Task: structure prediction
Amino acid sequence: MIHLKINNMIIAVDFDGTIVEHEYPRIGRPIPFALEVLRKLQLERHLLILWTVRDGTLLDEAVDFCAKNGVNFYAVNKNYPEEQEGDNPRKLTADVFIDDKNIGGLPEWGVIYKAILSGNSNFQDMDDYLSDNNRPKRKKNLFLRIGEAWEDSKKYK
Result:
């Protein structure tokens, strides 16, 4: 039996691109601090659910990879372990979804941990957790860079 404290969360986690680099169908390298944060959340008695498009042997490989790295899931692609295979929920019941396909992408795992630690399951305003120093660095769109260069060139005329 799992005992939950009031502040424990059900956390659904994607695999490819979230726990490991996206190299589907192969298993990519672990994303920095993903496994460490998941192990810590597990120790804090949050319920972790693996929520992935993988199935069959590919799913077994992902679950085994996580288990070998100390992360054991409460459920895999279902809301609870006893849920029947054919039930296949269209929606998962979770307090938090951690996925690289979030709007704005995947924050660093340290940022994710701080947000969960604060008990904030809303995540509507990730700017509360992402300072300019923590925000992932991304290349700007080519057209945006051209536009900025054009605007800069006007300043010197």
Remarks:
- The chain has one domain: 10-155.
- DSSP finds four helices and four strands in the chain.
